[in-house]
Amino acid sequence: xxxxxxxxxxxxxxxxxxxxxxxxxxxxxxxxxxxxxxxxxxxxxxxxxxxxxxxxxxxxxxxxxxxxxxxxxxxxxxxxxxxxxxxxxxxxxxxxxxxxxxxxxxxxxxxxxxxxxxxxxxxxxxxxxxxxxxxxxxxxxxxxxxxxxxxxxxxxxxxxxxxxxxxxxxxxxxxxxxxxxxxxxxxxxxxxxxxxxxxxxxxxxxxxxxxxxxxxxxxxxxxxxxxxxxxxxxxxxxxxxxxxxxxxxxxxxxxxxxxxxxxxxxxxxxxxxxxxxxxxxxxxxxxxxxxxxxxxxxxxxxxxxxxxxxxxxxxxxxxxxxxx
Length: 324
Fold this sequence. Notes:
This protein is of the alpha/beta class. Helices cover 16% and strands 27% of the residues. It is globular and about 60 Å long.
């Protein structure tokens, strides 16, 4: 599949990666920076102020997927390696990435089908074909955890299944959720279990399992009927809701696997605004952001984030994109 090229272009300094949880820096979850981009301009706040930029009647949709402990020590021909579990494709059948042991980055480029990898407790896995396309030499799949699993869970996490954290919701605290509900802002759940969400440049997202409950579908349709906005928390929520929508933007109960890729050929039909972290240049996530908020607003937000020193990736800062 050939992806379109995102309109958004930016260059950020190498020290803009958030390499540790905000709590390790003495910053509360909901005290990370929040950039609010609207057609009338850009505002800067803290994530705890999110409710100030929403209206009573708005519906905020969150992902209840919990993060799996996906990195396991293994041995390949007597040598230590790291096994990173991604998406479960069937019972006992997983997409994995095999990496060197320790702090080294990058996948092992010489993996071959049929190899046996020894695991703790006498278990083992046998390497099959490359994923998502079979027969690719040097195929890859993702990065080591350095922090306890609790740092990779959101306050909405209920159903274990994600290999990488649905990180747009990480800054939410129970206090913020309470304040939003008390202000008349509704919250509804979906579930989408993420696999290798940090796809490389030009690489489409892989199929992922999702569920949009009937109650959430009703709340989305009711919000729109009342003239209120549907705000997705993250690209995972956006992908799930849009996968459950018909051509007119009505959402139905749905479950299964989605291979939907939003972009110029498939704009958003359901999502009116988006809470998101910051993604790398040329990532397919930028196409999704542009499909929701428009390329000009996204480009403005990223330009401002670079100038103001926002932090990138799952432990970094956040954005609220509110197109007109």
